[in-house]
């Protein structure tokens, strides 16, 4: 199944300092129908090439010479907020996972994943779904809960929350519970595209930038328990 983005193959860039691994991942993605637009073997090169090539998805190792993967992630996401970053790392250390997510990664997969799991993860990342190796999703959600528990600065000065429609609130609640767009679409019996539209509208109303911020917003308001 060729992964499509706006009617064209999903473009991907692969960043890893091990040439054999990098080439193997790039080859697997190309054979699966992805458009591999660039590869890079160190941090500074990754930032330069990502800005030049403008991929839909960046498959990124964290352990890079020259500039750590989390810094690469911060730079490229700051430059292109619509870019999706899937971290592909040998480390399942919780601190590494949380740092990657805080730097703007939308997914985190261990290198022990199978080729099929990697291809599925890149497809889902391109579609805007957060993808985590099993066991890490709960950790990330737990971290958002912890952050949400910290007092918000000058809460009294904040304007009232924008009004969301019932359907937008419903979608937001399911996003906060960790459901993928596909699962939300099936549960609410609406199309995947309609779910994406509701999420985009909600992001606009709340002045948030991505799904990670949306989940945090929802958890702050207890929607994940509702």
Automatic annotation (TrEMBL):
InterPro entries: CheY-like_superfamily, NreC/VraR/RcsB-like_REC, Sig_transdc_resp-reg_C-effctor, Sig_transdc_resp-reg_receiver, Tscrpt_reg_LuxR_C, WalR-like
Record-annotated Response regulatory domain positions: 11-126
Pfam families noted in UniProt: GerE (PF00196), Response_reg (PF00072)
SUPFAM superfamilies tied to this protein: C-terminal effector domain of the bipartite response regulators, CheY-like
GO MF annotations, alphabetized: DNA binding
CDD domains for this protein: LuxR_C_like, REC_NarL-like
Full protein name: DNA-binding response regulator
Provenance organism: Streptomyces hygroscopicus
Lineage: Bacteria, Bacillati, Actinomycetota, Actinomycetes, Kitasatosporales
